[in-house]
Amino acid sequence: MQHLRRYGIRAALLGALVLSYQAGPQLAQAQAQHQEATKADFERFMKELSNWGRWGKDDQMGAVNLITPAKRRQAVTTVKEGASFSLARNAETQGAVDNPQPIVRKGNPNGPPPTTDISSTGDSFFISYHGYVHTHMDSLCHFFYKDQMYNGYARSEVTPDGGAAKNAILNFKNGIVTRGILMDIARLKGVDYLEPGTRIYPEDLDAWEKKAHVKVGPGDVVFIRTGRWARRDAKGPWSVSEGLAGLYITCAKWLHSRDVAILGGDDAQDVLPSGIEGISQPIHVLVLVAMGMPIFDNCDLELISKEAAKRNRWEFLVTASPAAVPFATGSVLNPIATF
Question: What is the model's pTM?
């Protein structure tokens, strides 16, 4: 019996060694896939992924140039039912740790009593839309790197009083009409939401394409769902200093290789902390400044996630129209997905 026991122990050890040997290359390969990037990689990506001059030295549309008339016609063919769903978060009007500037609505005074049967009322909004809560569109003048914005325009083109003389939101006054693709990374991972600080890698984007049987292509708007709003609704708001799930810097190469027109998501796109020393939002900088790709920040993708899953369809017609405000750096937004 002791002999058999010793034999069994030796066999178990041998088996463990064999498994360890077999797993070694796989583990090394997995680690290599998620190799840490550095600030030097960021600097290299700024050059390698640049679209400056691609559509001419005076261009201010950036990757939206990829939404051609042919692309719009192709996008319309994705509509089979005519069922439409908003991708915007309802206005957050209560201050919170992640919402220091809530949207303010004030009713206008009704004035004197009406003298006829016809009367009216109205209200006013105050909206500070940039940040981590309100659904909005970042124009290409929103971020700079080394005092330059997209296509080499100088930071001096944007002033506090005059606004943005270049790369302003008014360039997109005619609206966005193209194909949208939901990349539901929380669903891919089998969870309701990703925890703050969770990194999304290019391999995750590839895996979602395979799972959803969809391929991102030129002129698409990509929406990344982390489940951020599901987590906030379940657990309450949390400080951005505690982290946000989002794209790791290496996803910028993936977006560039697919010629994505606009990047959207349910938070501020970047994983926080970014993991890149001295660069807090590398995805924002690479996308806006290098690639000229506008961003749809803080979309609420909970409804569209359920509707897409119900249909097992992850592509749709997406339409969006920013406010036509001259010299503005962005706009509140209500993107619409239509199946």
Answer: 0.89
